[in-house]
Write a structure and sequence with these properties.
CATH superfamily of the largest domain: Glycogen Phosphorylase B
Distance between the termini: 16 Å
Structural class: alpha/beta
Order of helices and strands: EHEEHEHEHHEHEEHHEHEHEEHHH
Strand content: 15-25%
Radius of gyration: 21 Å
Number of strands: 12
CATH class of the largest domain: Alpha Beta
Helix content: 40-55%
Largest sheet: 7 strands, parallel
CATH architecture of the largest domain: 3-Layer(aba) Sandwich
Strand order of the largest sheet: 3-2-1-4-5-6-7
């Protein structure tokens, strides 16, 4: 078997985009997901090359398949890029998995998705809108996990929020932007010849601040503003792209403090996108970030402005597409990742 760069994990489908981008650049890379299932009760049918286990497999079968795969990785991988999870038990990484791969001199790097590294007490201290209550036990589990994996995974490529939690544990942290294949999400300018269509597609209502969004929508309606509101959840990724293409304003999330993959996809489609960016992170992003920075206290006014001024929607739509082309194009992200891979020991 030819040596390959492993992209391990799902995380909203971006590991596949990385693997696909690397293949276009001439590098052998494979995206393997842990299980053929999705988060929560969703079935988004996210792209991947291979699912390691089936959700209906017995526990012992799952363990055996993972153990066999780890042997394959040790023999055939030139670099392992973990995306939000490791192959075996997370808190045991330093006991077997990390030790085995390090003994083969295989470089390892980790990207985080959110709850896999977010320390709640730190998030609440910096973010008055954060949605989770204090949970010391959970925070200690996260710290224990970070201590375990950082014994052999010495490098991280992730976003600015995750870096703020994990930086003390790792040798070096690199900024990583979520990649998107721009051919999959074509530009579709907001329409100005009809009532604006406002869209919200929550993967998790609590995380996204969905109830607050619904409340503000009702408040705007009572005030006499005219628009259409669409909220959907159980969609495949392809169906989600169709819904985003048909809307004029996309409301993503109000509580976490950074933007995620859905915001990138919405911006790529040319939609004004509302999400919350923490004040201490604004300077971490490029100066031309076109997101409409919105929290629960400002949502009413931000939506009202976009409803009333169609030309603003169009301007934000064009700027949003340009931003994604500049910073999130999968080929650009892949090129940046290759530089990071070489820096952490990858030899092509």
């Amino acid at each position: 078997m030819k040596k390959y760069i492993l992209q391990y994990g799902s995380l909203a489908g971006w590991p596949y985009r990385v693997a696909d981008g690397l293949r276009r650049a001439g590098y052998n890379s494979v995206n393997v997901i842990q299980e053929d299932s999705d988060v929560e009760d969703l079935s988004r049918q996210l792209p991947h090359d291979r699912a390691l286990v089936h959700k209906d497999d017995a526990k012992i079968t799952k363990f055996v398949k993972r153990a066999k795969f780890l042997v394959e990785v040790a023999q055939h991988c030139s670099l392992v890029h973990y995306h939000g999870s490791v192959i075996l038990r997370s808190h045991w990484h330093h006991l077997l998995e990390g030790r085995m791969l390090a003994s083969r001199k295989i470089p390892m790097i980790m990207s985080f998705g959110g709850s896999d590294a977010r320390i709640i007490s730190e998030a609440r201290a910096k973010n008055p809108y954060f949605f989770k209550p204090l949970d010391e036990r959970r925070d200690e589990q996260i710290r224990s996990y970070l201590k375990s994996i950082s014994q052999y995974i010495r490098f991280v490529a992730t976003d600015c929020e995750m870096i703020s939690y994990v930086k003390p544990y790792f040798e070096k942290c690199y900024v990583f932007r979520q990649p998107l294949d721009l051919k999959v999400v074509p530009f579709n300018c907001p329409r100005i010849d009809r009532l604006p269509v406002i869209l919200h597609i929550p993967t998790n209502n609590l995380v996204k601040g969905t109830q607050k969004i619904i409340d503000v929508i009702e408040e705007l309606r009572r005030a006499g503003y005219k628009f259409e509101f669409v909220i959907k959840r159980q969609l495949t990724q392809a169906q989600m792209y169709d819904e985003i293409a048909a809307c004029d304003i996309y409301v993503d999330e109000l509580l976490c403090g950074t933007y995620g993959v859905t915001a990138v996809e919405s911006m790529a489609a040319g939609k004004p996108t509302l999400t919350y960016i923490r004040p201490d992170f604004i300077s971490e992003y490029p100066y031309d970030l076109p997101l409409v920075n919105t929290n629960p206290d400002t949502l009413y006014e931000k939506l009202k402005e976009l409803i009333l001024y169609p030309n603003l929607r169009v301007d934000l739509g064009y700027r949003s597409r340009m931003y994604v082309e500049k910073y999130h194009d999968a080929d650009i992200v892949t090129k940046n990742l290759l530089d990071i891979y070489r820096d952490v020991g990858f030899k092509s």
